[in-house]
C-alpha cells in the first residue's frame, strides 16, 4: 500500500498571471486530499471515495471521461509510463477540500496520485511532480491551466506563502506574520473551470502578448497595451498591473506591512472585476462588505466566476469581523 496527503491552496495575490510570466503568492491550506493505492492483479483502475458517488473501474489506458476519478487516473497512467507503478490499482480517495471552490482540489488530487505512486522512490523532486501534474491537467483533463496550483500543493506548507516565479519555478517560502489572519470564505456562488471561460481568457492574454511582441504578457508596457483593441487592452492592463502588484505584495509580506498587502489585494479584485471580467456581481458585493467591515484586503481567489474569496484581517479582530460578515451574508461559509 502507498499513501500520500496533499493540501489545497488559496492564492493571496498574483491572479491569472501564472501563464503570463508572473510571480504568484499561493498558500497551502490545512484541508487536504488523502490517497491510498493498492496494486490489484487486474488490468483495471478502481477509484472509490466517500465524498463522491460510485466506485469506478476503468481500463489502464482509458481516456478522461469527465468523471471525478479522471484526476486520479491521469496520475496513475503517467506513473505507469514513468515505471513508478505497474498494473491496475485500487485507490481510496478522501478529501476535505471543497470542490469547485477555487482551492485546487483537482491539482491536489493529481499531485497526491503522483506522490503516492512515487513514494517508494528516492530523489523525486516535488517540482518534477508539479510539472507532471500540470501536463496531466493540460493534456489528459483538457484544462489549459498554468503551474501555480500544482506547485502550491506539491511544494507549499500551511502557514507559509510560496512566492513562486512561474517562469522557472524558482520560489521563496515566506511565513505569514503572526498578527495576520488569512480568511478563506466560500461565497456560496458555484463555479466551473472547465466550462470554456478559462480557455477564452487565456487565449486573449496570449493574443495580447503576441500583439505587443513580448514572450510573456507580464513584460508588456502599459502605454503600448493601451493601443490594443479595447478587450485586449483591458486584459493586458490586468496582467501587467497584477504582475507588479504581486511583486510589491511579496515585499509587503516580507516586511510585515499588512495595510500595504491589503491595499494590493483590493486593487487586484478591482482589476479582476473591471479588466479581466472574471468576477460576478454577488462576489463583488460580498468582497466589498468584507473590506467595509474591517478587512485590510479582500479579493476573489483562483480563476474567479464564483467560489471562494480571500481576506487579510488583523488577527485580533478576525472573529468579530467574520461574525459581522456572516450576519450580512448568511450563505457564506468560512473555510479557513
Ligand atoms: C486556476 C488555474 C491556475 C491559475 C488560476 C488563476 O486556478 O488552474 O493555473 O491560472 O486559475 O490565477
Task: Give the helix/strand layout.
Layout: E1 2-11, E2 23-24, E3 26-39, E4 44-49, E5 56-59, H1 70-82, E6 89-95, H2 105-118, H3 126-141, H4 148-155, E7 160-165, E8 170-175, E9 180-186, H5 197-212, H6 222-225, H7 230-255, H8 258-274, H9 281-292, E10 297-300, E11 308-314, H10 318-328, E12 333-334
The structure holds alpha-D-galactopyranose (GLA).
Alpha-D-galactopyranose binds at residues 11, 15-16, 18, 145-146, 148-149, 302-303.
Unreliable segments of 5+ consecutive residues: none
Bound molecules: alpha-D-galactopyranose
CATH architecture of the largest domain: 2-Layer Sandwich
Largest sheet, if any?
A: 5 strands, mixed
Order of helices and strands: EEEEEHEHHHEEEHHHHHEEHE
Radius of gyration: 20 Å
Number of strands: 12
State the CATH class of the largest domain.
Answer: Alpha Beta
Helix proportion of residues, in percent?
40-55%
Please state roughly what percent of the residues sit in beta strands, choosing from under 5%, 5-15%, 15-25%, 25-35%, 35-45% or over 45%: 15-25%
Given helix and strand content, the structural type is alpha+beta
Largest sheet, spatial ordering of strands: 1-3-6-4-5
Q: How far is it from the N-terminal to the C-terminal residue, by CA?
A: 31 Å
